[in-house]
Design brief:
20% of the residues lie in helices and 17% in strands. The protein starts with 45 loop residues before the first strand and ends in a 7-residue tail after the last helix. By secondary structure, it is of the alpha/beta class. The longest helix has 20 residues, at 523-542. The protein contains 17 helices and 27 strands.
């Protein structure tokens, strides 16, 4: 993830500090609600409705006073009631708690915490700041919200975010069941909730555009496209003002809560609306057989660095929640966003696990993609741990069993763990697949060797890991970087609209504009770009691993060359639905690609076959233009692969030609007999509808060679029994 704020220098190791004492790795079994106590109880943490009122509990170690503030409305500048929590009767260990009778779900509240302000020792208590509940299930934002009032001196109550009391059990799931789609059949569609339906062309009612409810209306499109899982950019409550002046934080990678859905993504205006509308969306997606994966940010918060605002964690337990440098007034910044969450501190470990459990148990989420997941590998001093407790906690937690866990296995300080992320079941965003696929199709010398490895599951990286073949999440475009259309339309980034003089965003895009920078009226340029899009979609969908497609790439959505569009809530970022008709041929191409993947064998999952075992058992052969003569020299820009689909009794022959010339490729002779010709499924060098057909209606190919057009991919099917009887069994 690229973020707008420049990261600080890597911190030096500091002295061990703020060890609050070990907390249990696993909380005791929780009941639906604690018994009422006049003083409240330490557990559960957060605000919990119970018979006759609500229990409140927060962690703060060095505070001298804690006040609970109740509000009648989000816009209230002053609380209707202030409850001072007794530091003796209402404190257990470092948990301050109280019971408030007669409160109902929907109650708006916040905290004020008094304690020493001593930044040099990591303490930043400020009783003039209204604080969100770190475990609050709901967050409301007043219309005159002012982020920087949390950083200036003085009371910020009138313009601060506030928490909402939520009864998470008060919802009828109507027998909801998770689809539990196998990894072998999973197709991920990365999308932005608001951007998916906000455009006027979405046909969604105006009041629901850009919301969870609006997304529900587009489920038929996702089903038709062949998607099995949506991966939502952050939907945790975030600070939209955390960005440079003149723009808005659109992506949402600036969390203010790890339990509350973002209120602006709800079409409802009541405080409890976002919670129920999110669950309505999940329930509707599950009914359609679609899984919900959340992009989660457990690596930093929107409070920023030393000059950032105080709205939650800084004001409760700054030394526990954040990794600090030797000078504890400074924040270690492995995230590139000003601070780094102290993920392996006992209190923060508990919070992350409680958050994940909440989204699985109460919100029925199917999986998580962890932003900058390598930060989870750092200890309380920022050093990299060989076996980070939080990573193993997440994987081994029984509540998390069966959920999809995906790591973005790097951070903003250079730690890169793709191929080596700790754990047995974690999948990884494969950034090397992205780069090598891009380089191959733009003709970079020698890239075909690396791309061939990526296509068959990246055994160079994963073979030694002894994990399932779908460990690699393969993609060529995501929210961070060029869209697929821009990847084939721009050589350089064009981020001037971000108000940072085009300095933000990556300079290494591995893109090729097909001869013209930006939009073009030249039909030959457009034809080549369309072909390149089909090439990249084909290899993403057919490679060994889990494919991920970026929202709108199937219809050539553009961001006009901006590769860091985190700060634009406008048509610049929204899905223009007129493109679906304009590029109907590409949408059709994607749909037919997905149709075949849904029929893939999952036998290796049932047998727990590893990538190495699967590759060792496979019958396959590499070729060049001549059979069994692959050319791996730097001057080559093509190769072919023959392999078997054992369960389907099919032989597959794939040809990749990234050169600017048409090339004649020999075909395995055993499948050229008149009674058993090869069948053409895909040829991206042909115009639609001949570029792809339903795989069951393959076009016969009876010649012993095949002419592959420049920069094209061809996929042929043949009968596996015929191949074996011929005696020409391909070998590794």
């Amino acid at each position: 993830m690229i973020k707008p704020i420049k990261r600080s220098e890597r911190p030096v190791t500091r002295e061990i500090r703020d060890r609050s004492g070990p907390l249990p790795d696993r909380p005791v079994a929780r009941s639906k609600a604690p018994h009422a106590s006049p003083h409240g109880r330490a557990f559960p943490i957060g605000a919990t409705p119970i018979d006759g009122g609500a229990n409140f509990s927060v962690f703060t170690r060095n505070a001298t006073a804690v006040d609970l503030l109740l509000f009648d409305d989000v816009a209230d500048a002053k609380p209707s009631r202030v409850i001072s929590i007794d530091p003796v009767a209402n404190r257990t260990y470092h948990y301050w708690h109280t019971f408030v009778p007669n409160l109902q779900p929907g109650q708006i509240y916040g905290y004020r915490v008094t304690g020493p302000f001593d930044p040099a020792n990591g303490l930043r208590f400020d009783p003039t700041k209204l604080l969100l509940d770190p475990y609050g299930r709901g967050v409301v934002v007043t219309k005159n919200y002012d982020r920087w009032a949390g950083a200036r001196e003085g009371d910020n109550t009138a313009v601060a975010m506030k928490s909402v009391l939520v009864d998470s059990g008060a919802y009828d799931w109507e027998g909801d069941e998770r689809p539990c789609t196998s990894s072998a059949r999973t197709i991920i569609y990365e999308m932005h909730v608001r951007g998916f339906t906000r455009h006027p062309s979405s046909s969604v009612a105006e009041a629901k555009r850009g919301t969870f409810a609006g997304l529900i209306e587009k489920i038929p499109y996702l089903k038709q496209l062949g998607i099995t899982a949506i991966e939502l950019l952050p939907i945790f409550a975030y600070d939209a003002q955390d960005c440079p002046p003149g723009v808005v934080n659109y992506w949402g990678y600036q969390p203010v809560s790890f339990f509350a859905p973002h209120a602006a993504y709800s079409s409802r205006t009541d405080p409890l609306g976002p919670i129920d509308e999110f669950r309505d969306m999940v329930k509707a997606l599950h009914r359609a057989g679609l899984e919900v994966i959340l992009d989660v940010v457990y690596n930093h918060t929107s409070e920023g660095g030393a000059n950032g605002p105080t709205f939650c964690f800084k004001g409760f337990a700054n030394r526990a929640y954040y990794i600090l440098e030797n000078d504890q007034s400074r924040y270690a910044d492995f995230s590139g966003c000003g601070n780094t969450l102290n993920a392996n501190h006992p209190v923060v470990r508990r919070m992350i696990l409680d958050s994940l459990r909440y989204w699985v148990e109460e919100m029925h989420v199917d999986g998580f993609r962890f932003d900058l997941a390598s930060i989870l590998s750092r200890d309380i001093d920022g050093n990299v741990l060989p076996n980070p407790p939080i990573v193993w906690d997440i994987e081994s937690d029984p509540v998390m069993a069966g959920t999809k866990l995906i790591a973005e296995a790097w951070d903003a300080s250079g730690l890169y763990q793709v191929g080596s992320f700790v754990g047995d079941t974690w999948k990884e965003w494969n950034g090397r697949f992205r780069d090598d696929a891009r380089n191959f199709f733009r003709g970079v010398p020698g890239s075909h060797r690396r791309f061939a490895d990526r296509f068959v599951g990246s055994p160079e990286m994963y073979r030694q890991e002894h994990r399932e073949p779908e460990q690699s999440v393969n993609f060529v475009a995501c929210h961070d970087g060029f869209t697929l259309n821009d990847l084939v339309s721009y050589n350089d980034k064009h981020n001037e609209a971000n108000n940072d003089q085009n300095r933000d965003g990556s300079n290494d895009n591995f893109s090729w504009n097909c001869g013209v920078e930006g939009p073009s009226d030249d039909p030959q340029v457009e034809k080549l770009r369309n072909r390149q899009c089909k090439n990249l979609l084909t290899v993403t969908m057919l490679s060994l691993g889990v494919p991920m497609i970026l929202m709108g790439d199937e219809a050539r959505r553009t961001q006009l060359g901006n590769n860091n569009a985190y700060c634009h809530d406008s048509e610049f970022n929204w899905f223009d639905w007129t493109l679906v008709e304009k590029h109907a041929d590409l949408v059709r191409f994607m749909r037919l690609l997905a149709e075949r993947r849904m029929l893939r064998s999952i036998e290796h999952e049932q047998k727990r076959t590893t990538l190495g075992e699967m590759i060792d058992a496979a019958t396959k052969a590499w070729h060049g233009t001549k059979l069994d003569q692959p050319d791996w020299s730097d001057c080559s820009q093509c190769f072919a692969l023959t392999t078997e689909l054992q369960k389907d009794k099919l032989c597959v022959h794939l040809i990749f030609n990234a050169s600017p010339q048409a090339l004649e490729f020999e075909l395995p002779p055993s499948c050229t007999a008149p009674k058993n010709p090869w069948g053409r499924w895909i040829d991206t060098g042909l115009d639609s509808p001949n570029d792809i057909v339903s795989w069951r209606e393959r076009v016969p190919v009876s010649a012993d060679t095949y002419l592959v057009q420049p920069r094209s991919v061809v996929v042929l099917f043949g009968n596996i029994e015929r191949l074996r009887k011929s005696g020409n069994r391909a070998s590794d």
